[in-house]
Structures are given as C-alpha cells and as structure tokens.
Amino acid sequence: MVPDTPTPGQREALSDREFANRYGLNPKTPAVWRNRGQGPRFIRLGRAVRYRLADIEAWLANGGEEAVR
Question: Across-strand partners of 13?
Fold first, then answer.
C-alpha cells in the first residue's frame, strides 16, 4: 500500500504551482521564467515540469539572477 503523504525525500521535486506557493510567487511566474530561459533548472517528466529542491536552492544561492543550466 502506498502512503497518502510523502515521506521525506519523496517531495524533492516541485510542480510549477508548488514552487510558486512555496516561494510566494504568482502561479504563472515559473512558466514565464522557463519560457524566457530564466529561473532555476527544471526537468520534464512527459508533459509535467518539475523543479528539484537542490536546483532551486542553487539558483537562489546564485542570487536568482540566471538560470542554472
């Protein structure tokens, strides 16, 4: 049986909405950044886009200025 709530380590990647909510952004901002080549590195899983927490942290540590590609 699969647990309903993720255990630590399972939620190491965030959707656009989760990323926006976590950092107080407009829900459309991550997509806008992605289309402009800005923001943190992201991965595609089929049609889904996810942001690894480590990539978000690296981008923030870099001042949030340039995408970490």
Answer: 52
* Residue from 15, 18, 11, 9 nearest 49 by CA: 15
Expressed in percent and rounded to 5, the helix, strand and coil fractions of the chain are 35, 15, 50
Q: How far apart are CA 68 and CA 58, in angstroms?
A: 7
pTM of the model: 0.76
* Closest-CA residue to 53 (of 5, 10, 4): 10
Mapping DSSP to helix (H, G, I), strand (E, B) and coil, where does residue 13 land? strand
What pLDDT is stored for residue 40 in this prediction? Answer: 96
Q: Using one digit for the tens of pLDDT, what is the confidence trace for 32-68?
A: 999 999 999 999 999 999 999 999 999 999 988 766 5
41 and 4 in contact (C-beta within 8 Å)? no
